[in-house]
From TrEMBL:
NYN domain sequence ranges: 5-176
Lineage of the organism: Bacteria, Candidatus Yonathiibacteriota
Sample GO molecular function, one term: RNA nuclease activity
Annotated organism of origin: Candidatus Yonathbacteria bacterium RIFCSPHIGHO2_01_FULL_51_10
Pfam families: NYN
Name this polypeptide is given: NYN domain-containing protein
């Protein structure tokens, strides 16, 4: 039996940030946040040993915003090293690119493209090869509903892992089970890391 935790990285971070926004706290330093500890809060002892795949998009260089592009690439590398140390398998999928609402805008909105497709393809491919019996989907995007339906047709048990803040009711309805991460657990994983750094 193969159990894998599939994490939509940008979606995961966005949901964590929503929790901090709700209590009017600054978003954590992602290169120090205890992502592994957050999952450990809600997984059973056996589930903690499952493979954890963290999918993320690579920043696309933009000549019109060189400094910001460089910052994004540095953050990308720092986060990658941090996640590796926490035991995640990193998978680069798609790109993070700047979109402008209108010509002349100086502050772009960065959008991730391709991660949801990559996760969906990987899950289905593994299922078709008989290499996946249970998928933990750490994502709150309704675009995953079709792949969840196809996985279940192939006998794969799908568990939705979402957040107390804005859980995806559609995915809850479509999956076999759900795990909900509380806001207290989200905030606690940032505080624990700050305490460790201060003690050091």
């Amino acid at each position: 039996m193969t159990h894998i935790i599939f994490i939509d990285g940008e979606n995961f971070r966005h949901r964590i940030k929503e929790v901090f926004d709700k209590v009017k706290e600054t978003a954590p330093d992602w290169s120090a946040y205890d992502f592994a500890g957050l999952l450990d809060c809600v997984l059973t002892e056996n589930q903690k040993n499952y493979e954890r795949r963290f999918y993320r998009a690579k920043p696309k260089p933009h000549g019109d915003i060189p400094e910001l592009s460089a910052q994004l690439m540095l953050s990308y590398r720092n986060l990658g090293g941090h996640l590796n140390r926490q035991g995640f398998e990193l998978i680069t999928a798609g790109v993070l690119r700047a979109d402008y609402k209108k010509p002349g805008d100086k502050k772009p909105i960065f959008r991730e493209k391709g991660v949801d497709v990559s996760i969906s393809v990987d899950m289905l491919s593994l299922a078709c090869d008989g290499k996946l019996t249970e998928a933990f989907l750490v994502a709150s995007d309704s675009d995953y509903q079709p792949v969840v339906r196809e996985l279940k047709k192939r006998g794969v048990r799908v568990v939705y892992v979402g957040f107390e803040v804005n859980p995806n009711l559609g995915l809850i309805a479509k999956t076999d089970d759900r795990i909900i991460i509380s806001s207290k657990e989200v905030l606690g994983c940032a505080k624990q890391n700050r305490m460790k750094r201060n003690a050091a």
